[in-house]
Structures are given as C-alpha cells and as structure tokens.
Description:
The chain has 418 residues and is mostly beta strands. It has one domain (47-417): Porin (Beta Barrel). Helix content is 10%, strand content 55%. The strands form 3 sheets. The protein has an 18-stranded antiparallel barrel. A two-stranded antiparallel sheet has the order 8-9. Strand 3 (88-100) and strand 4 (108-119) form a beta hairpin. The chain is globular.
Amino acid sequence: xxxxxxFKKRSLQILLTKLYFFYPGLSFKFILLGILISPWKSFAMxxxxxxxxxxxxxxxxxxTQSLKNFSTYSQFYLKxxxxxxxxxxxxxxxxxxxxxxxxxxxxxxxxxxPSAHWLLSENLELKLGRNLYEKKRDxxxxxxxxxxxxxxxxxxxxxxxxxxxxxxxxAYLPERWIAMERKKELNYGFGFFLDINLTSxxxxxxxxxxxxxxxxxxxxxxANKMSRYGISVVGxxxxxxxxxxxxxxxxxxxxxxxLEENMYxxxxxxxxxxxxxxxxxxxxxxxxxxxxxxxxxRHEHSGLSDFLQWRNLSYYFIGTNFFPFKKLKCQITFLGxxxxxxxxIDLGAFGSFIHAKKNIxxxxxxxxxxxxxxxxxxxxxxxxLQLLTAFFLAQSSSLKKDKQNLYNNLQLTALYKF
Length: 418
C-alpha cells in the first residue's frame, strides 16, 4: 500500500511539474529545469526516441537569369516519449532549423515543444503543454515544410474510438506564415474537431466525415473575434477505383453563424494499380477576397513552387502519381491560377522573394500557370531523396518582374530518419 502511494505521489509530482513549467510564455531554461528535477528512473520506463535530419538545396531563377540565390536549408528533429506510468506520458520535441543563402534573413532557429499526456480512461486523453497538433491540413496543420512549425500552447482533450474521434482544444496560437515572414495576428483560440471514419457506407467502401469549429479572439491585439465552421467528406468506391475529397470552410466575425467569407476545395481521383500503380486526379479551389487561411499547410496547396497563398485565389489542378519502379514515385501536376475578384492577393515565400512583397493588388484576371514535377526515391528504409522542379508562368502584369514572366524553383532534398 505504501509503495502504491509513493508511486502515485511520484507520478503526480511529475505531472504537476510539467503542467507548471509547460505554461505558455515560460522560458526554455525553466522548462528544462522542470524535466531535470523529475525522477530520472520514471523517464527510463517506456522511453522511445525517433527523429530525422533533412537537407534541402534550393535554386531560384527568373528565366535563364539566375537571382544569385542558391540556398541550403537543414532541419534536425528529435522526439522523445517517456512513460512513467500507464496513465501518464511526456513528449519532448526538439526542432533545429538553419538557412544558408544570400536572400534569407533567418539563419538559425531552435524550437522546443514539450507536452504532458494523461490517459483519463481507455478512450479519453488530456494533453497539456505545447502540442504539435494536425487534424485539418486546410485549416489546422503543422506546416512542417517551414522552419517554424505550428503548435498549440494549451490544452487538448481527445476522445478516440475505432470509428469516432472528438477533440476539444483551448490554446494560445502560433504566428502565421505570410510570404517569408511570421505574423503574430492570433493570440488565443479554441475549437473542436469531429471525425467519423467508416469502413463502409452504403455503396461507398470507405467513408469519412469531418466537422470542425475554430474560434479565436484578440486578432491583431484588438477585441475582434472570428469563427470558422468547416466540413469535409472523403470516400472511395472500390468497384470503380474512384475516390473523392471535398471540404468547405465558412468564416464569420464574432461567434455568430453568419458566413462572410468562404473556401471550397475539392478533388476526385482514379486509381489504376495495374498501370504503374498510378493515380490520376483533378480538382478545384476557390476562396473569397478576405478569407483568412489560418494555420493551413501552405506548401502542399496552391502549387509546390510556393509562389501564391490562399486568399482571393481560385485555381484548378490536374495531375498524376505513378511508380515506374517499386521505390520510385513520380508526380506531375498542372495548375491554372486566377484571382477570385479585384483586390489583394497574398504571395508565398517564392513569390515574395521575387517581388519583395507580401501581397499585390490585381484585377479580376488570370494570374498564371504552373507545372510541378516531383520525383521521390526511397533509397533505404531510412533514407529518402526528393527532386522537385516547379515552373511558374506569370500572366498578370502585376506578377511580372522586369518584363520577365517565367520563374523556376529547383529543390533537391535528402531525408534521413532514425
């Protein structure tokens, strides 16, 4: 009995220490101190480490004239999981990013994401601290292509079963990426996420329905509030080898259900396994002039060149994935961009690099065309190589620089997992 009380006391000590030191705003040295004073024997129970090292070389060009920018980006990530008891688990994430290149102002960035997880019941878990949380990549994601990942500093309550996932969270929000800069425009937010995943639904072999509410306040340090309502449906018809993925987001001021801005994104795809295990897809996206894309994964949306961002943007995309060899994947995508209406558009990192701006005023017009060619090779179980070349052909005069309209983004990436 006495040993059980000592164990519970030690577990409670660990949990309270983490809750205190993980509170948003405290410095790294205090968080580290909280970890060091916890009993090291408890951490040795059920510990697990994993991570990766990434190296990416990027060459940016305007037609045949080099911009004199050949940059090297590296990223080191380490995750440690420690489980002192069956009910309590601690996770520590370390992320170190470096940029080397003439045009990049950020040279080194070190980030630390600590969190404590408490299993309240078989299906209910409470997460406290700085959580790497990704549920809807078109609204709430890690945005892990960037050198600063998105995280929620606060509380997440998760309920999970085989077919149902329900999350409620309340947290301080990270800075959002706009062009090549991080902008602190959201201070605090809360929301819920519902995910229903069925292996069969009438004639559909797999069906998934998602609904979410995201609310935030103190935008730009003002007492403004914003609400976001999102739904998405994903499914696959095995008899036709046909799948679909549709999502919609409505945005309103305050906590009222009066949609003022919106976003629609949809895709259908066809799989042909006996032809190089290929997949053919076509899709469309549109969002309104004042739509706030929030914490979405911007690299995998609106073209891999990262020339444009969501907001006042409409585009179609068509492409294919195929495996010429077992461990070699190729992807070719063609995109056509238009502005939804007259007004401002947001530039991505590559677009901002060309124009040294975050946004540009355009008419309601065609903005440009883009083609992406990506080759991914899995060399070994732990080593992956990726080659990406993306060409953006500007059609709007606002996006042309010195009367040049063809831009090329060439990237070579090596990823080593451990």
